[in-house]
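The material for today's practical consists of a large collection of protein records. A record pairs a protein's sequence with a compact description of its fold. Instead of coordinates, the fold is spelled out as a row of discrete tokens. We will come back to this pairing of sequence and fold again and again. Here is such a record, shown just as it appears in the course material.
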Amino acid sequence: MSSFNKSTFREYIESIVVAVILALFIRTWVVQAFKIPTGSMEQNLLIGDHLLVNKFVLGPTALDSERVVLPVDSIERGDVIVFKYPEDPERDFIKRVIGLPGNIIELRDREVYVDGQVLEEPYVYHFDFGGGRIINNEFDPRNNFGPVTVPPEQYFVMGDNRENSQDSRYWGFLPASHVKGRALLIYWSYRSDAEDYRQTSLTGTVQRLASVATHFFTRTRWERLLQQIR
């Protein structure tokens, strides 16, 4: 009986260890959860959207044969990616890829040109400052920028909400080594009050959790669940 209990206990421990290893493997190499903290990608991605990020599909490969066997893909213009913020690698940002290595990027009166051609951007949102006015300062990088050439192994990224996004127009090109993965889908979306985001203390965290528990059904954006990110 004693040996049976020891054997059963050992099986439990081994199962837990295997589960932890698998979870760490998936978290590190395959998929990552990410929460939208700001409005820089509105109206496509809203504050409170919870995403799954595919890390495996953009993983590096050492040999061409690996790329044939593994489902690894290259970064394309229009991809929505999560990456380490170059000025603070501890923070994760999410933006859309606009310029690939070698592309010449320019903004003229808020329109994006890639290699001299206007880029069609149905996803772009421009903020209305009131009364139907959009402030158009010729020296504002939100409106006019470049031209610049994207260096090798780097990308030019921008937020969809062009008047409310800290992106390559301000901090420069994104090194390929900083890319963590491609945004895949929204697995949950929760509308929080502005006050929920201002609470940063332990008490504030408890209050946020209590708010989610209380308003889970009424504040969940059910229509956004499992929505693919494009």
